[in-house]
Amino acid sequence: MTRMNALAALAGLALGSAAMAQNTGVLLTDGDAVFRFGSTTTTVLFPTVATSSSRVSIDNRINGGVTGTDLGWDMQWYIGLSGRAREFTMTGFTGRTVTGTNQVAYSFNNAFGISGLSAVVTATLTDNAYGPNTSRVSTSLSLTNNSSAAISNFDAFFSIDNDVAGTSNVFAPLAFNNSHRVLAQSNLTAAGGPFHSVLYGYNADASGAGSFTALNSQMTDSGPDFTVLADLGSAGNSTAADYAQLMQWRRTLNVGQSVVFRADVNASIGATAVIPAPGAAALLGMGGILLGRRRR
Predict the structure, then answer these.
(1) What is the 3-state secondary structure (H, E, C) of 130-145?
(2) Euclidean distance between the first and final Cα of the chain, in Å?
(3) CB within 8 A of 130, min separation 6: which ones?
(4) Which has the closest alpha carbon to 260: 182, 202, 193?
(5) CATH of domain 74-291
(6) Separation CA 140–CA 156 (nearest Å)
(7) 230 Cβ contact list (under 8 Å, min separation 6)
(8) Using CA atoms, how far apart are residues 185 and 95, in angstroms rounded to an integer?
(9) How many CB atoms lie within 10 A of CB 147?
């Protein structure tokens, strides 16, 4: 698997109107936590063809800045529609906004190859989110239907290949925190660990876990996956060296309506993986909630 060159900018750089057109990656920092969202040297990130198999390369380091142990490899958002030959990836990039050192937002028109669909993808890094030796990367996909027809029963997918400290070697069964789905994976043997990475899907309808090759092929093969994914029902050792996770939501988006999907990647170093308490998760916001129609 090769890393995709994706989005880059210096953290904390004030962006002018010319910079807003940059289709590059960003290095987010907060305390000594670092999250690299795409390449910081390549100027082209998002594909122009929605059937591209490109993904956004990432680094996710809890401590030690850019020299800390890396807990991430790549990620991507996808949209599936009934009747399409496969799920489509992010296209239609229009601009980027960096806020402070730890937040970035990317805007799209005719996103995912869907006429009239606008989108915003965000990433926010928080150091010590749940105490020392923890960090949280919150990513979201906001969609607005500006077309003249409803987008019915579409699937949104968030896919991440964590590769915790090289490769993870232990995974936990699917857990629920209120209506949110939780998938945890760990590397218990890497020096400086144990290391953990927990994918938290707010109000997700389904989830998947397994080898990157198996999961990614479901997003990029020639056949649609317009079915709800099977959940991981048992714990164990990963039989694949390259282990990945995926969250899925299914919604209908009426004309003028908006929806926000959210997934968090909670990283930690210690004896056990850190999972937010139900009350804390509620305060962080809800993903997959349909919003009211825009005023015209």
Answers:
(1) CECCEEEEEEEEEEEE
(2) 46
(3) 136, 266, 268, 274, 276
(4) 202
(5) 2.70.98.40
(6) 11
(7) 206, 208
(8) 34
(9) 16
- Token look-up 């996770």 returns 245
Q: What is the pLDDT along the chain (296 residues), one digit of tens a residue?
A: 333 333 333 233 333 333 334 668 899 999 999 999 887 666 667 778 888 888 888 889 998 887 888 888 888 999 988 777 778 888 999 999 999 999 999 999 999 999 999 999 999 999 999 999 999 999 999 999 999 999 998 989 999 988 788 776 788 888 888 889 998 888 888 889 999 999 999 999 888 877 777 777 777 766 555 454 555 455 555 545 567 888 989 999 999 999 999 999 999 999 888 887 765 555 555 566 666 554 44
What is 89-154 written as a DSSP string? E---EEEEEEETTTEEEEEESSGGG-TTEEEEEEEEEEETBTBTTEEEEEEEEEEEE-SSS-EEEE
E runs forming strands in the chain: 26-30, 33-37, 56-61, 74-80, 88-89, 93-99, 103-108, 117-127, 134-145, 151-161, 170-171, 175-177, 180-187, 195-201, 206-211, 243-253, 258-269, 289-291
Per-domain boundaries in the chain: 74-291
* Residue whose entry in the numeric block shows the structure tokens 């489509």: 88
